[in-house]
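Hi team,

Below is the intake form for Peptide ABC transporter ATP-binding protein from Streptomyces graminofaciens. Please confirm the fields before the structure is written into the shared record.

FORM ID: S-0412
PROTEIN: Peptide ABC transporter ATP-binding protein
ORGANISM: Streptomyces graminofaciens
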Amino acid sequence: MVFQDPVSSLGPRRRVGESIADPLRARGERDAVHIRGCVSELLERVGLEPAHYDRCPHEFSGGQRQRVGITRALSAEPRAIVCDEPVSALDVTTQAQVVALLGELQRQLGPALVFVAHGLAVVRQVSDHVAVMRRGRLVEYGPAEQVYASPQDPCAKQLLAAVPALDPTVAARRRAVRLQLASTG
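The structure came back. Fields below:
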């Protein structure tokens, strides 16, 4: 799992390399040299330095901490990774970098990504299929292009109408949808 707040999921006094190595140890790996080598390779794969193994979480930027969280998830060699709002606390540039990294890792390594988010602009970038939930219930599901092009559920319509648009025509259309939904809801 990749958490929204990587700081909360990392021990503040613990070296990040040790946190990343936990899944390796849980699988029975005991050779410290091999563990360090695996963690160093994973750190490089996500754009960090092997020397970062010995740093504490507070020594990293928000985007770097999220990369540490991604690295820890990868160290378990998962078939699926749940990403719980993994970019919500990051600036737009760092969000784009982390989303691109997740997509690249998914293509290279193959794990399915379950991407939980409120920001539908980000969801569109990473999703083949989209599920919209309201109050813990699934209200819409389908291929991303279908859901974005023609949402059926009022909640999905409202979420999509809230996605910012640079094109003034698209922005006006979304504003009209929001007003219509507000008057009927």
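SUMMARY LINE: The chain has two domains: 1-113, 128-185.

Thanks, M.
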